[in-house]
Amino acid sequence: MVVRTAKYIYVGNGTIAPLTEDQKDYLENNVIRSFASYALRTIALAYKTGSFSEEDYIQNREVNRGFLQEDLILLGVFSIQDPVRDEVPGAVASVQRAGVTVRMVTGDNIDTAVSVAKKCGILPPDFKGKVLRALQ
């Protein structure tokens, strides 16, 4: 979401440049998907410059998300690892043998979620496809 809404990218030495649709597509389809396929959680870091008052980002006691998401300068995309605990795959297998259908609910990137579900034994290792993302 941060990559998609960013307008500029930091290129070094205090310089920013417009962030093109091709660059956004590359970041989403290559960098973020690559991280996610290894069950890594991806984080995009961006900022905005200027002098702002509370009224700029709070309206009617609510966060003005539009203001917070406009004119962002993307610093980069990185990932963190939150490994599956050793006992989870065995626990999942145990309850599956008992007849329980295991489902995972997460707010992760869809590719991260699929990779984690495979590591937990919720999805088969050869699973190829998308999981329904519903009820937001």
How many helices does DSSP assign?
A: 6
Question: How would you name the CATH homologous superfamily of the largest domain?
Answer: Calcium-transporting ATPase, cytoplasmic domain N
CATH topology of the largest domain: Calcium-transporting ATPase, cytoplasmic domain N
- Poorly predicted segments: none
Label the overall shape. Answer: elongated
Task: Please give the domain count.
Answer: 2
CATH architecture verdict of the largest domain: 3-Layer(aba) Sandwich
Outline the biggest β-sheet. 4 strands, mixed
What is the helix/strand order? HEEHEHEEHEHH
Summarize the structure.
By secondary structure, the chain is of the alpha+beta class. It is built from six helices and six strands.
Can you walk through the features of this model?
The chain folds into two domains: 80 residues, 3-Layer(aba) Sandwich (Calcium-transporting ATPase, cytoplasmic domain N), CATH 3.40.1110; 48 residues, no CATH class. By secondary structure, it is an alpha+beta fold. The mean pLDDT is 87. Helix 2 packs parallel to helix 6. The strands form two sheets. The protein has a four-stranded mixed beta sheet, with helices on one face. The protein has a two-stranded antiparallel sheet with strand order 4-5. The protein is 38% helix and 22% strand.
